[in-house]
AraC family transcriptional regulator (Neptunicoccus cionae), 316 residues
Amino acid sequence: MPDWKKSSSGGLRVGVLLFDHFSNHCLANAIEPLRAANDLAGASLFDWRFLSLDGAPVTSSSGLQITPQGRLEGSDGDMLFVMPSYAHHSHTGAATRVGLRAAAIRFDKIAGFDTGAWLMAVAGLLQGRRATIHWEELDAFAETFPDIDVLRERYVIDGDRITCTGAIAAFDLAMHLIGATHGEALRQDVATLFMSDARAESGFGRARDRLVGRALDLMQAHVESPLTVKELARRLGVSQKTLEARVKAALGATPQQVYRRQRMVVARNLVQDTELGIAEIAVRCGYRDATAMTRAFRIEFDTSPRALRAGEGKTA
């Protein structure tokens, strides 16, 4: 196995610092979306490595034991995920404080999950920053660290310091990371895989612009019989020009591009998960014939439906 610090995959390198009593739920929600993004892209967009302060095994709150792949000292990367979860007060000693301060030099960004913000704060990494923490600890956190601008948000990004509340918010933050680093299209694909309406929580789409969220819902509801952009705008009660501008601002793409991507994601899922003929798939995705659908599919995924079904291509 190659040394993680010298990985040549080009993926975003993430260190996951675990402590005894960490939350399985929080860990899975932070890492599984990244794993799914890798699978969907057919590339190592994210590389992660499990760490502990001293490299010794750690045990989750439910008894799951993990043997880390290394210790915090000497590890570096693009991001460090700090995950203490339960019993975080027992991890505020000198080893944690010194270790995190040193890690802040070697990692470009540090993200505290669940109660990870508390450990970042005792290490002096959040002074003068905006931050959040699991809401059960929010008042105590604000009282203990008056120099931190404490916010009741699901996650807070303040430059190279990121803080996040509980396990569900960990998923939201991971989805935001995927979108911010590799685009809205991949983020939507991962959301579809997890059957999640991640637009509402991830910082894209509905959370930023309700009109865009409603437009995405209308598109999704009319995959088989697509609406024109003019008709979408009419149903939403705005002008076509307004809709196009709002979608472009929120998603970085035109309504036509977003709509086509949604239809192609449905087509890809039908190609991979069913035995339907290509002509039937075309109809279900709003195309009059298989040739037109195949042409759009190739433009979107750089492979054909038949090649993908035969295992000859991967889509991003």
Observations:
- Confidence is low (pLDDT under 50) at residues 1-8, 197-207.
- The chain is about 45% helix and 15% strand.
